[in-house]
Amino acid sequence: MPNEASVRHFILATAGHVDHGKTALVQALTGIDTDRLPEEKARGITIDLGFAHLALPGFSVGVIDVPGHEDFVRNMIAGVGAIDLALFVVAADDGWMPQTEEHLQILSYLGVTRAVVALTKSDLGKVEERSAEIREQLRDTLFASAPIVATSIRPQAGVEELRLALTNEFAQLAKPRDVGKPRLFVDRVFSVHGSGTIVTGTLSGGSFTRGEDALVQPQNRTARIRGLQSHNQPLEIAGPRRRLALNLVDLAPDQVSRGSTICAARNASGVSHVIDVLLNRSPRLPSSTRPIRNGAMLNLHFGSARIPARVQLRDRGELSPNENAIARLRLAEPVCAFLGDRFILRDASERQTIAGGVVLDATPTVNKFRSSGQCTLLDRRAPVPNNLQTALCTQLERDHFATHADLLGNVPFSKEEVATVLRELGASSRIFLEEKMAVDANWWKSLRQSAARLVDAEHGAHPERQGLEINRLREGLQVTSPDLFAALVRALAEDGYRQEGATLRRASFQPSLPPNLHAAGERIRTALRARPLDPPARRELATDAAATQVLRFLCETGELVALTEDLVVSAEGITKLRAAIEQQLRVGKSATVSELRRATGTTRRVIVPLLEYFDRVGLTRRSGDRRTLR
């Protein structure tokens, strides 16, 4: 017997017309009667979903038995939203029937690629004829080469051959992906005395652990997972592609319903009332089928949910059979959808399945449907909706930049997968990769060029200034993200620019007074040379706007030192005063303000702020009323 770690888990769902023997066949395979409702027993037909467990060599298979009656197709769709293999059931006496055809189209819309056909009631004969008919019906579909197994319940025949065919098909399937983003689409809700609320569904995309917090969407309610069970077996952890029952604490049965999605609270994905999609109408629809008109109100079947949705076609007025079109669906209730998710559209009366589709953008609400950026994104994703590189590139081209957390949003890829592709894109220079974010390379280049133009414009207009103030640069570029702007400044600093305090300049730039300020500059320099140890007050120097600009320039370039708001001293004067103070303190070891004033020949107006300045820059140390050299 294989150990649990080596067993692969998959989901099998039945499909086919009413009264073709799906439930009886499941019971023959599993020993479980999936008809659980009294009405199902009384009427002899499956009305709602039934569940069973099938053990095959190396595989643990959750079986979903769906209703075949046309009145309950909505229930059928709720069960096949996350399956790996279809068990098509066709009765030898009836052959291919209307619901067989509708179920085939539904499975095709949902992206199911593998199936096994069980030809039931084969004891009634017509096996070769029906097999040929089925093969013809499956021609030009993904199930064209599906094995066809003749079976009969009375007498029991072909069941072991069917088991073998199923085992062979499961062996061809890849192991279900665990991307760390579990979603369980709820198909049953009930309560158990002493335990509370129980929900069941099919788990995909990740794992749940007993004791962790879950998020119920779209209700946005948090609940703790008290217990996990799969096929009546308690589990500590459950991986993808299992039929699962969750015991949710602090959640009443009326706070969750069929159609809800259970996510892990640790990495819950968002929900949206709007999704952008690629719609597909089957070529198998009758030519008389009415087109889907722009603005039509239809029912969206997504996961186990059924939600009214208004269809907005992007570039046409209607959609006929055997046509595809990009559309926006506006939903009456939000869904937790991922890129690449499949769905079904049925008419408002729930009598016909009229289209299927795939999600191209699960959260497009901030982007106008027909904007050039959104159109480009949707057009490029449509042929390859499950391609991670295309998904990342198109998002960055549209949004210009995104944090790593944003890129991990409603996509069916793991953190490791996203990080790997981002590194590859960075290595090929298609994106600029930062610690916290990724930026489209072309937009990043344009942003840096814009920053350079703003800095150069400041140098040209105000050569007397140190550079462009950082806040003005941010405003000029209209960059609102602090992380993006910080990354930009770091990149510029590594490429010929220098940040000094609150300004940014080219490293090669040297501030200089423009010609119109030369005269004011010379007047100020002359006044300070005349009184180097007792300079005029700043207000006496800044007599007009030009002089004020010059003073600012001289202070920024270090030619003047501002000791107070009203006192500036030339750098030459500071050097002379420093030399005198150092000589006095070396000789006398310490000195008072008065002693240092006499030694320097300056005034108290100058010596007090001067010594405080020297304290700040580390030349002197104050102790009481005396100064010493540090």
What does this structure look like?
With 630 residues, the chain is of the alpha+beta class. The protein contains 19 helices and 34 strands. The strands form 9 sheets. Strands 2-3-1-4-5-6 form a 6-stranded mixed beta sheet, with helices on both faces. A 6-stranded antiparallel barrel has the order 7-8-14-11-10-15. β30 (560-564) and β31 (567-570) form a beta hairpin. α7 (372-381) runs antiparallel to α8 (388-399). The longest helix has 21 residues, at 441-461. Residues 40-45 have low confidence and may be disordered.
| Alpha-carbon Rg, integer | 38 Å
What order do the strands of the largest sheet run in, or round the barrel if closed? 2-3-1-4-5-6
Q: Give the structural class.
A: alpha+beta
Beta strands, count: 34
Instruction: Summarize model confidence as the mean pLDDT.
Output: 89
Shape: elongated
- Assign a percent range to the helix content: 25-40%
Summarize the main sheet. Answer: 6 strands, mixed
Unreliable stretches (pLDDT < 50, length at least 5) are 40-45
The N- and C-terminal alpha carbons lie at a distance of: 82 Å
**Relative strand content:** 25-35%
* Count of separate DSSP helical elements: 19
Give a quick summary of the entry.
By secondary structure, the chain is α+β, with helices and mostly antiparallel strands.
Keywords:
single chain; alpha+beta; six-stranded mixed β-sheet; six-stranded antiparallel β-barrel
